[in-house]
Specification:
With about 260 residues, this protein is mainly alpha-helical. It has ten helices and two strands; from the N terminus they run H-H-H-H-H-H-H-H-E-E-H-H.
């Protein structure tokens, strides 16, 4: 159990690094908007369908095909993150890191690849039109899906077994502790939403709030002396909603007081 506590603490630290980097990426890196327009509800519905359906596709494919798909996903995500900074050299660096990981299967290199890959996700979604209410609805739907997938089926356990058996783990992992890439992606979007609408100080407050569930999960593990597969968004989504709309209420109060004083 002591080893698991250490492993979980390492993953929590990596999650904090990922969210802070994502926050700074949103603030400092200029991302060009695509010509296809803004994200809307139809895009959100399509994303939900993909999130629900893709795990079943992975389970149906041979391991070599899953490995190839994961490699292409990471190359694409890393290129999106690096190219605004390095230009065309971003593709070379992305391919190089993914190729080295295939031969090394290193946990640390895998985590570095994941952190780079997810750094730009929040900025891409939010800067291209995703609204706070859409983000909130998206996180609630995924929370319900997580509950069903984890407690109602063995889908997530099967998916985890596949991911740990090949070089590319979509998520942060250290030995027996891990957090999935879907959860990390949503967390980066939640942080970017706060950054866009309420500034850096409140986005750092949101990061603190979103990391808190990991300590709650760790405490549950210690108390029950058993390692459990738990859906992170079940804990993070209510905290996000309470924190975000609490920040909104505080801003609204400040604005109203300014109007009255004027």
């Amino acid at each position: 159990m002591q080893e698991f506590v250490l492993d979980t603490s390492t993953v929590i630290s990596l999650l904090v690094v990922t969210l802070i980097l994502s926050n700074e990426y949103y603030k400092r890196v200029n991302i060009q908007r695509p010509s296809i327009g803004h994200f809307n509800w139809r895009d959100m519905i399509l994303a939900m369908v993909l999130i629900v359906g893709v795990p079943y596709i992975y389970l149906a494919l041979p391991l070599w095909a899953v490995t190839l798909i994961f490699a292409l996903i990471f190359i694409s995500l890393m290129y999106n993150s690096i190219s605004p900074i390095t230009g065309v050299y971003g593709a070379v660096l992305a391919i190089a890191l993914v190729s080295v990981q295939y031969f090394l299967s290193s946990q640390w290199l895998s985590n570095i690849i994941c952190i780079i890959s997810f750094a730009s996700l929040g900025a891409i979604f939010i800067k291209n039109g995703l609204q706070p209410n859409e983000v909130a609805a998206f996180s609630v739907v995924l929370m319900v899906y997580d509950i069903i997938a984890v407690f109602g089926t063995n889908l997530m356990q099967q998916l985890v077994n596949i991911m740990v058996s090949q070089p590319y783990f979509i998520g942060l992992r250290f030995n027996s502790a891990m957090i999935g890439g879907g959860d990390i992606a949503i967390l980066t979007i939640l942080v970017a939403t706060t950054m866009k609408n309420h500034g850096r100080r409140n986005s750092l407050l949101m990061i603190t709030a979103l990391v808190f569930p990991s300590f709650a999960i760790l405490l549950m593990t210690i108390l029950y002396n058993v390692i459990m597969l738990l859906p992170y968004l079940v804990f993070a989504t209510p905290i996000y909603l309470a924190t975000y709309y609490g920040i909104m209420a505080r801003f609204a109060t400040k604005d109203f007081s300014l109007v009255r004083s004027f």
